[in-house]
Amino acid sequence: MSLHGLLRPDVVQAAGPVDDRVPVTVLTGFLGAGKTTLINRVLATAEGERLLVIVNEFGDIGVDHALMAHAHDDGVIELAGGCVCCSRNGDLGRTLADAIWRFSRQGRRDFDAVVIETTGLATPETVTAVLHRDYRVAAHYRLNGVVTVIDASSVLTAHLEHAEISRQAGGADRIILGKADLSDPGALSEVRRWATSINPVADIVESAVTAPFELASTGWRLAPLAALPPAERHGDMPSATVVMADEIDPHAFATWLDLLLVTAGPTLLRLKGLVCCGPDTFRLAIHAVQGIVHPAARLRQKPVGQGSYLVLIGEALRNPAVLSLLDASGALFGATTTYRGL
């Protein structure tokens, strides 16, 4: 049964009495769509509400978690090393159950709501299933809804190559058009039409929307999730984690990175990392999405005990020339590279 089929009147249930469990929002979106940027904006502007963020990362090192924790000292939990939608549901259940006592003061819970940021390859249905099926979780949490960020500048072509994008949009209560400023009005209208065709009941807004995780109550919830199709597993998507020396030569690194990105091309779905390029106490956040490099962001300080590292995701890692460049990072930067899915 498709996700659309789950919205028919004969397969939905009326909501029960007032529910005082913790609301959980599942945030999905393909690699590089802008999920972390959205959460950081919410955390920076949140007033009053105490938000717990659970970040699931595909690589062995949590880059997004480090960026959030850098700006916000408390309430960020990392689940690294696998995709929560297909291989780490047990970890998610334990994390949510443990958070009730882990983030509490004098016996009272110290957060009002939870946002789960999934990997760029995750689809929402099996993540939301944890909230319904895990008794440790269902006793304390309820599903607020699913928010999906799409990259408005590339989604019309990217969804043809990556089925996850359509599944993410199809399972959303709200679709947020990320990077809308990079699209002209005509193209943005086409993106809205595509999103509506995929999910006619979703609220479609731009990323500047106020309170993106405050979703209107629909008065119903999805039927028991046993009706959902089996989740797709992503264990065959290659990833690599490159851990480098604490300080590296910025000119050599820039040359190596340019060559790596040109060689990999758009099949390198995502590159992200934190790099220390000198004796100063700051690091640079590096981001690239399918060959497009975003300006490096300078962090205020270098966290103690953490050096330079990159996480790469995509079929480009099956290219021998790319693997040779990653091997060369050992001699250039004292790097150690570990692989998954190869």
TrEMBL record:
<keyword id="KW-0547">Nucleotide-binding</keyword>
<dbReference type="InterPro" id="IPR003495">
    <property type="entry name" value="CobW/HypB/UreG_nucleotide-bd"/>
</dbReference>
<feature type="domain" description="CobW C-terminal">
    <location>
        <begin position="241"/>
        <end position="328"/>
    </location>
</feature>
<keyword id="KW-0378">Hydrolase</keyword>
<dbReference type="Pfam" id="PF02492">
    <property type="entry name" value="cobW"/>
</dbReference>
<dbReference type="Pfam" id="PF07683">
    <property type="entry name" value="CobW_C"/>
</dbReference>
<dbReference type="GO" id="GO:0016787">
    <property type="term" value="F:hydrolase activity"/>
</dbReference>
<comment type="function">
    <text>Zinc chaperone that directly transfers zinc cofactor to target proteins, thereby activating them. Zinc is transferred from the CXCC motif in the GTPase domain to the zinc binding site in target proteins in a process requiring GTP hydrolysis.</text>
</comment>
<feature type="domain" description="CobW/HypB/UreG nucleotide-binding">
    <location>
        <begin position="23"/>
        <end position="205"/>
    </location>
</feature>
<dbReference type="InterPro" id="IPR027417">
    <property type="entry name" value="P-loop_NTPase"/>
</dbReference>
<comment type="similarity">
    <text>Belongs to the SIMIBI class G3E GTPase family. ZNG1 subfamily.</text>
</comment>
<protein>
    <recommendedName>
        <fullName>G3E family GTPase</fullName>
    </recommendedName>
</protein>
<dbReference type="GO" id="GO:0005737">
    <property type="term" value="C:cytoplasm"/>
</dbReference>
<dbReference type="InterPro" id="IPR051316">
    <property type="entry name" value="Zinc-reg_GTPase_activator"/>
</dbReference>
<dbReference type="GO" id="GO:0000166">
    <property type="term" value="F:nucleotide binding"/>
</dbReference>
<keyword id="KW-0143">Chaperone</keyword>
<dbReference type="InterPro" id="IPR011629">
    <property type="entry name" value="CobW-like_C"/>
</dbReference>
<dbReference type="InterPro" id="IPR036627">
    <property type="entry name" value="CobW-likC_sf"/>
</dbReference>
